[in-house]
Amino acid sequence: MALEKDPVCGMDLEPGSAASKRDYQGKTYYFCSPECAQKFNTDPARYAASQVTEERSYPSGHKEQHCCHEVPDDYQEPVSAEAKVTPAMGYYCPMCPGVGSDTLGDCPKCGMQLERNPAYRGSPGKRVYTCPMHPEIEQDQPGNCPICGMPLELKVTGAGEEEDRETRSLAVKLWVGVVLVVPILILSLGKMVPGFGLEHGIPEGWNKWLQFILATVVVVWCGGIFFERAWRSIVNRSLNMFTLIGVGVGAAYLYSTMATVFPNAFPDSFKHHGELDLYFESAAVIVVLVLFGQWLEARARKQTGKAIQLLLGLAAKNAHRVTASGTEEEIIVDQLEPGDVVRVRPGEKIPVDGIIIQGFSSVDESMITGEPMPVEKGIGDSVIGATVNQTGTFMIRAEKVGHATVLAQIVELVAEAQRSRAPIQKVADRVSGYFVPAVIGAALLTTIVWGVWGPQPSMAYAVVNAVAVLIIACPCALGLATPMSIMVGVGRGAKQGILIKNAEAIETAEKLTHLIVDKTGTLTIGKPEVTDVVPASGFDENQLLTFAASVEGDSEHPLARAVVLAADRKGLSRKETSDFVSVTGAGLSARVGGASVLVGKRDFLQDRGINIPPALADQAEELSHQARSLVWVALDGEPAGLIGLADPIKDTAIGAIQRLHEMGIKIVMATGDTAHTAKAVADRLHIDDVRAGLKPEDKQRLVKELQAKGGKVAMAGDGINDAPALAAANLGIAMATGTDVAIQSAGITLVKGDLTGVAKALLLSKGVMRNIRQNLFFAFIYNLIGLPIAAGVLYPLFGLLLNPMIAGAAMSFSSLSVVSNALRLNRLKL
Questions:
Q1: CB 74 within 8 A of CB 140
Q2: What sign does the dihedral 268-273-275-278 (CA atoms) show?
C-alpha cells in the first residue's frame, strides 16, 4: 500500500493506520494523531500548500520524516530548492537554497541553524533567524536548523545591534565547559603526572564519581544542543555532522557512566590491569572543543554579511520634504512617496532615488559605484538614494522610494546571490549525502575489527577508536566550502559596484572566452556631446553656439539637445527667435535678433546658396573621419561655422579592454550604428572584431554563432535591444545605467556602467572559484586522511592511536579553516 504524508508533521503513514483523515479541496489528507488533525483544521490552506511544496523538494522520491511532537507550533515547512527565498522570509539556510521560514529553527535538510535574510522586508521590530548552510530555513525565534543542526542566526541586523542570543548562549556554555573541564582533566590524568599525588587527597572511590558529576554538567548542559540536533537529524532522516558528534560523545559518556555505576557488568576484555578505563575527560573536552569551534565559526560567518550590513547602513534616516505651500518639514525616509519634493543640503545623504528639479551640485556616488570622483549634477539629472551631496543645495522629485530604490534592490540582489548555489556545489552535495552513513559504517567496522583482532583490552580500544572516527569526520567542512566563498565573493563585488545575480554567474564568468559589447552606452557615454566648435572667419565659438542653441532650443532631437546643453554649460543666453521653419531630416531656419540663421546639414545650407569655404570644408572632412556628426550654421547668407558632435568614449574603456585582453578575452563590438562610426571607435580601443548595423535579433545570432564555435560568450549591454543577446549569452552583463529589461536579462549588473566593472567581475569570479576549489580540496583531503588515522591504521606500523580529544579539535579546525579561507576574498585585489 502506498504511503501518505501527514501534512502537519511530515510523517509517512499507511492510510489504513491513520488516526484521522480530512477532505480538503478534493484531496484526502491523513494524520498520525488527533493533534495533527486539529492543527490542520486551524489553517488547512497553509498545511496543504506546505505538503505540495515539500513533495516538490524531493523529486527523487526521498521525503523527510519527523515526529509530530518534535515540530514547534510556529515551524514553517521549507520551500523547495526551486522556489525563491523572498525578502518577505526572515530566515534561510545558505547550504540549502529555497528553504525559507518566517520563524527561527534548524534546517530540515542539513541540521544547521538558520541564518537571517539580509534582504528581509518584515516589520522593523521583527527578528528573523536563518541557517547559514540552509537559507530556506527561516523563523522568528532563535534555535537550531532542523536539517544540519547548526544554530540559527539573525537574518537582518540593525546598526549597532548586539550579538544575537545564540552566540551569547554558545559563549556562556563554552566558558562553563572550560571551567569544568580543567578539574575533570586533573582528576583523570593527575595520577599520570609523577609527584602530583592528587589521588592521595581524595577518598577512595570518589574520583570517578566527581568526574561523573562534572562531566554530566558539561555533556548534558553545555553539549545538550548537539544531542538535540543529532536527535532531530535522525528523526528527519537527514544525518549530519551533529549526528556523528552526538553518537561519538554519547558513546564515550554512556560507556563511562556504565563503568562507574555498574563496573561488574563488563567482561575482562574491557579492563586494563583489572580496571575499567573512563572517558569522561574525552567526552567533556570534545564538547568544549566543538563549542569553541561553533562559537568561532559563528563569529567568522557574521563577517560574510558585512557587505550587506554596510549597504543597509548607507541609507538616509530622515528627509526634508517641501510641501505644496513651500514650507519644509523633516520626516523619516519611509514616509516619502513618489512625486514628493525633497530639499538636499551640502553634506546630507540623498534620501531616495529622484530627479533634480532645481539647483546644481556635485555628488559623491562612491558608496554605490565604487568610483571616488564626485559627479556633477544639474537639473534633469538623476540621483541615487544614499549617495552624498557635496557642494550645493538642490531639490529633487522622488521617483523611487522604499524597496524600489537602487540601494534596496542592490541589497536584495546581493542577498539572493549569497543564498544561491554554484554548480560545483553539486559535487559536495552528492558526497555529503553518503558521507554520514559511511562514517557510521566505518565506526561500526572499526569496533568489530578492534574488538576481534585488537590487543587487550580489545573492547576498550574498540570504543576509543570508534569514537575517534565519529568525532573527526566533518561533513560541515564540505557543506560550507562553496556557500561561504559565494557569500564573501558576492559581498566583495557589491562593494565594487558589481552586482552578481547568482552563484552560477560566478562559475560561468571564470570560463569566458569572448565578450560581446554594445557600443552606445557601454563603450561610449550613450548620448551625443559637443566635441568641436569650429567658427568660420569673422565669428567666434560663443557667437556660433549662441545662434545655434537659440534656433534649436525647442527641438527634441538628440543633437539639438546636445548643442543647447553645451551653450547652457558655458553660460550663454539664448536669444528670442521668430519665423521658425523646420525641414524634416535637413535643418532649421529662423530669425534671431533680426538676423537670418540656418542650422542643419551641409546640403541644407548649400541648397540655400551658402558657399562653404575650402578651409572649413577640409576641417569638416577631418572631423567626419573621426566619426563626428556635423551641424552647420549660417548667418545672413554667410557660413558661420560648424559644430562637431559625438558620443564620447568612456574614459575607462581603453584600460578595461587592455585588462580583458590580458586575461585572454576576445572582444567583439556589436552595434546598430554605421560601420564608419563603429570602426572609428574600434580602432581607438583596439577591439578585435567589429559587427555594425545589427538589429537585436542579429546580436542574438552573433552570440549563437560564437557559441557554435565552442566559445563561452558574455554579452555586455544596456538597452532593450541588447536583452535578447543578454539572455542568449552564457553570461549577460548589464549596465545599471541602462534599462530594466537589460538588467533583468543579465547575470551580472555593473552599477557604474562601464567595462572596468567587467574586468573586475572576471577577476572576482576567478578568485572565488579558486577559493572554492581550495576549500573543497581541503575538506576532501582532511576527511580522506583523518578517518583512517582515527580508525587506527597507524597502530600496526607505529603504535600510534588518535585520542578522541585530538579528533574533536581537528574536526572543529576543519570547518573553521574553510570559513577563514573564504574570508580571504575580502582582501582580493580587483
A1: yes
A2: negative
Convert the pLDDT of each residue in 676-725 to its tens digit: 888 888 988 999 899 988 877 788 899 999 999 999 999 987 755 676 78
Q: Which residue has the cell 573512563?
A: 278
Average pLDDT over residues 130-142: 68
In the DSSP assignment, the letter for residue 219 is I
Examine domains 315-412 and 529-646 and report if their fold is the same: no
Cell of 717: 549591454
User: What count of residues does the chain have?
Assistant: 830
DSSP line for 472-535: H--HHHHHHHHHHHHHHHHHHHHHTTEEE--HHHHHHHHT--EEEE-IIIIIB-SS-EEEEEEE
What are the C-alpha distances in Å from 391 to residues 1, 171, 346, 625?
Answer: 77, 48, 5, 40
Beta strand ranges found along 367-481 (DSSP E): 375-377, 382-383, 388-389, 394-400
Q: Which CATH code is given to the segment(s) 529-646? A: 3.40.1110.10
450-468 tens-digit pLDDT: 988 888 888 888 888 888 8
Q: The domain 315-412: what is its CATH number?
A: 2.70.150.10
* Averaged pLDDT, 551-560: 80
Rounded Cα–Cα distance for residues 473 and 467 (Å): 10
Q: Report yes or no: 398 and 331 within 8 Å, Cβ to Cβ.
A: no
Q: Does 259 or 143 have the greater pLDDT score? A: 259
Q: Which of 609, 632, 629 is nearest to 535 (CA)?
A: 632
CA atoms within 13 A on the CB side of 71: 23
| Mean pLDDT within 663-679 | 87
CB 479 within 8 A of CB 110: yes
Q: Where is pLDDT greater, at 485 or 131?
A: 485
8 Å CB contact between 129 and 115: yes
Domain boundaries, the chain: 1-71, 315-412, 507-524+649-751, 529-646
Residue 219 pLDDT = 93
Q: Which three cell numbers stand for residue 808?
A: 574533536
pLDDT band at 149 (very low <50, low <70, confident <90, very high): low
User: At the fourth CATH level, which superfamily is domain 507-524+649-751?
Assistant: HAD superfamily/HAD-like (3.40.50.1000)
How far apart CA 112 and CA 136 sit, in angstroms, is 11
- Give the lowest-confidence range in 29-38, 65-74, 193-202: 65-74
Name the nearest CA neighbour of 351 among 308, 394, 413.
394
Query: What positions carry a catalytic annotation?
Result: 518
CA 739 – CA 569 distance, rounded (Å): 27
Q: How many CB atoms lie within 10 A of CB 435?
A: 21
| Residue (of 272, 655, 280, 647) closest to 460 by Cα position | 272
pLDDT at 60: 37
Residue 236 CA to residue 295 CA, distance in Å, equals 25
Residues 6+ apart with CB under 8 A from 342: 319, 320, 321, 322, 336, 351, 352, 354, 395, 396, 397, 398
| Integer Cα distance of 464 and 473 in angstroms | 15
Q: Which helix (H) or strand (E) holds 644?
A: strand 638-646
- Residue 640's pLDDT is 93
